Amino acid sequence: MSNQSDSVPHRGRVIAVMPAYNAASTLERTISDIPEGSVDEILLVDDCSSDNTVEVAKNLGLTVIQHERNTGYGGNQKTCYRYALDAGADYVVMIHPDYQYDSRVVPVAIELIRLGICDVILGSRIRTRAEALEGGMPFYKYIANRALTIIENMALGQNLGDFHSGFRAYRREVLEKIPFEKNSDDFVFDSQFLAQAVQFGFKLSDIPVPVRYFEEASSINFKRSSRYGLLTLGVLFQYWGNRIGIWKSDVFSDNKQSLVD
User: Fold this and answer.
1) Do residues 210 and 132 make contact, with C-beta atoms less than 8 angstroms apart?
2) Which terminus of the chain has a smaller tally of CB atoms within 10 A, N or C?
3) Where residue 72 sits, what CATH number does that domain have?
């Protein structure tokens, strides 16, 4: 089962990418919610899952890339975006395949970018506090998300509802410009990417995306969440250090050559 369609050249090529780790039990539900004809190709990058994620993805007709070693969440996204650029994507939407985010909003996100309203769209899980908590978001994660998002909005001059969403859509030029290969291979990749998007002058916005927390949905524990929060604050210090010229960082450089090359 696949929601891929024939490419429509004048509307641009849309590729959905899914960084996956042990997503076999939720993948089909995530795919089935993507509106028919809204994407031209769906890529799943498997980061050495211990379940049958790859088999399920192939049976659904997805394009599949298997990592030979676990590279981490950020490393997985790097593979996703390299493939999307090489495959000629004009628009890229990243969706976690754990059925936590409602993928019915894919065409809405892409259309806002097509219209030139913005360059980056995030799915906001927090339209209201009650809705987020009723969706199963742990209370400590809600508090941490609110605190970090307020700080990030202030530091980056934005007005986003949720800086830490696993649903994101991009115009091709965003991935071409941002040196994402230099970013962390861990979860803080997402925070770095958004700070880079601001640094390079792209327009960011968000749309409400209902969220579902349940046993099979991926989530990082309290210890890793705390580390992620501290690293995100570090990204903001790095951004401002680079902006005022006291701490120049390659992460915010126009040079896309990877530091590890």
Assistant:
1) no
2) C
3) 3.90.550.10
How many other CB atoms are found less than 10 A from the CB of residue 255? 9
| Strand-by-strand arrangement of the 204-208 sheet | 63-66, 41-46, 14-20, 91-95, 167-171, 120-124, 204-208
The token pair at 146 is 């609110």
Q: Is residue 261 part of a domain?
A: no
Q: How confident is the model over 137-182, as pLDDT tens digits? A: 778 878 888 899 999 999 999 999 999 999 999 999 999 999 999 9
Q: What is the pLDDT of residues 47-93, one digit of tens each?
A: 999 999 999 999 999 999 999 999 999 999 999 999 999 999 999 99
184 is a domain residue: yes
Question: For residue 241, how many C-alpha atoms fall within 13 Å in the half-sphere facing its CB?
Answer: 12
Q: Which of 29-38, 133-142, 227-236 has the lowest mean pLDDT?
A: 133-142
Burial of 145 (0-12, 13-18, 19+ CB in 10 A): buried
Full-model pTM: 0.88
Asked whether the beta carbons of 158 and 203 are under 8 A apart, the reply is: no
Residue 53 domain-assigned? yes
Residue position matching structure tokens 């339209």: 127
Domain count, the chain: 1
> Please, what's the b/e burial string for 97-130 (b: 16 or more CB within 10 A of its CB; e: otherwise)?
bbbbbbbebbbbbbebbeeeebbbbbbbbbbeee
Query: Containing domain of residue 198, as a range?
Result: 9-239
Which residues lie across from 92 on neighbouring strands? Answer: 15, 170
Q: Is residue 248 part of a domain?
A: no
CB 149 within 8 A of CB 124: no
DSSP β-bridge partners for residue 14: 91
